[in-house]
Amino acid sequence: MTDTLFYWQAVNLALDHALAEDPNVFIMGEDVGLYGGTYRATENLMAKYGEMRVRDTPISENSFTGLGVGAAMTGLRPVIEIMTANFALLALDSIINLAAKIPFMSGGQFPVPLTIRMPQGVAKQLGAQHSQRLEHTLMNVPGLRIAVPFTPHDAYHQIRQAIRSDDPIIILEHDLLYFSKGPVDPSQAPIPMHQAVVRQEGTDITCISYSLMVGEALKAAQELQQDGISMEVIDLRSLSPIDWNCLEQSVQKTHHVLIAEEDSRYAGAGAELAATLQERCFYTLDAPIARTAGLDIPIPFNAELEQASIPHANDIARAARTILLQRSQKS
Amino acid sequence: MESEQLQQFLYDMLLARAFEERAAEEYTQGHIAGFLHLYPGEEAVAVGTIRAAEPSDYIVSTYREHVHALIRDIEPKKIMAELYGKRTGISRGMGGSMHLFDKEHRFMGGYAIVGETFPIATGIGYSIAYRHLPEAVLCYFGDGAVNQGTFHESLNMAALWKLPILFICENNHYQIGTEIHRHSAVVDVYKRAASYAIPAEQVNGMNVEDVYHHTKSALAHIRAGGGPYLLEFQTYRYRGHSMADPGTYRPPAEVRAYSGLDPIVLATRELTRHTHLVSATPPFDTDVIQQHIEQGYQAGHWQVADVETMKAQIQQILDDAVAFAQSSPSLTMDEAIQLVNQNHAHEGLI
Lengths: 331, 350
Fold this sequence. Notes:
The structure holds two protein chains of two kinds. By secondary structure, chain A is α/β, with parallel strands linked by helices. Chain A folds into two domains: 3-184, Rossmann fold, CATH 3.40.50.970; 197-330, Rossmann fold. Chain A contains 13 helices and 14 strands. Chain A has helices at 7-21, 45-49, 61-73, 85-88, 92-99, 102-105, 135-139, 152-164, 212-226, 244-254, 269-281, 303-308, 313-330; strands at 3-6, 25-29, 54-56, 77-81, 115-120, 145-147, 169-174, 181-184, 197-200, 205-209, 231-235, 238-240, 257-264, 290-294. In chain A, the strands form three sheets. Chain A has a seven-stranded mixed beta sheet, sandwiched between helices. Chain A starts with a strand and ends with a helix. The model of chain A has no long low-confidence stretch (mean pLDDT 97). Chain B has a single domain, classed as Thiamin diphosphate (ThDP)-binding fold, Pyr/PP domains (Rossmann fold, 3-Layer(aba) Sandwich), CATH 3.40.50.970. Chain B is globular and about 50 Å long. Chain B is of the alpha/beta class. In chain B, helix 6 links the parallel strand 3 and strand 4. The interface between A and B is large, with 50 and 48 residues.
């Protein structure tokens, strides 16, 4: 049955269903219990499932994340909430050196069925320390899987899939998506967790995006439509692994690629996308792959400069026009 | 203490010492590479603690963990093969000296970033509490690890939630080359546990019986629902931090003084007093042991035949272990990649 839910409600529902489905699932993090989560994602779950299964922690990101790894090694299925990705910097040893390494360096003896959820991204004037995007760091870690759900429906299903999986999986949620709304159908069979989807069909150019930026790309596509430009918008839904076939198929149709990402441009996800796509589709491309990305500066607190340091729909539309203008000038 | 138990301790420590010396030899000959952190001098800690634990308890160890694995009854040849990086190694050659894992023996890994054993042990402790089982976790760490944040974070959570964890400090007084009074404002590690209301004791880690008894009672406290416990064992490593460390920062007199407290020698003496049986003769090249064994011969405490039997048995085990490691094949790259993918083989990712 389809309900229209806020994103945070979809997360909450996924966690609720996972706790109900499997007694080995437990949730741990700062203020996830009594307080219900800073974005309400774990609201009412402690009352429903008890303190052992929905556990408020001290402010000790590295150790409670590592605790999740240890618990996962004995067969539990921990869901660790790190209050924001900014704090996950303190937990990188547990994520990179423990969760991602143990299944491998134990010679396959110890799977780590661990889910780590964290909001990230540029919200509204939270300052440089609270506006980080961490995908570039995590993507470079073999052994981790990373999902970046944009819609409430995806948030529900990708969280359920992550919890059921035997791999360590990072769910990057976006601060500004929690209060977006959308249809959620828990009973619908989900598509594979790392499959990309075409959110908007188009024929002139492919815009590849993920998380909050998909919304900006969709707005840009509407704007471009008025100019008679047909932009295809792909929601990656996952950053590790990446659904290259979906991207390749789109490029074969449009021959032009624009990547829209909120993360800083230098060595970001877009760099990997551009590098691999040119290897795979060089002869299909009619123009260099372009990126619209965050500026390579810490995010300013100042409201105008903050917004100017990350891409918006108009930036994406402008970049698309520029690419296509070069095409028409050539021909 | 029963004579049989003392003989077990002696055998354990002799095996531990001989294994490590053999590993050093293989390293020196270039047969094995990488970091190699050896345990001679600290044997009483591993033997006394692990022999006091139940098979259902979990072991979480550091990068100096060959001996913990041996005493946990993991086959020496599987440990040696791991040092060689072979597929027959306990971690299939993907972990190496610092990352021995054995699910069957609840040997939950050696961890090579100082301080990582704390959160892993806390997670296992949480899992035990979650399932209401009468099990415990033995969490090892050195004196250098107590200044990592994870020590404080994990002890706090362990105490807060009364988790069944025995924190075992192998205080050998050095974090690589920095002596404890130069790295810690409080040099008595056990005192730090008071910050988290965790009961703690400082114990002579050069005496295997002391180690065993203190561990037994700490585990009894934990199993009775008393929450975590911390034991600080004062010990000493005779070798450098690793094979790459000549150990020039320690005065020779200090090393000699601690060698006089050699846990193997002490155990041998105790065993002799109890049973008038045996001790070791050296394949082990430790002057202190050699000296005491000679004395034992002269005083008529030792029976040569028994000593020779034990010695030969251990040498044979190690010769076999090395031969096994040398003749074992490596994992292929496809198999290594498979280790990354095997846990989602049943999922369709894309």
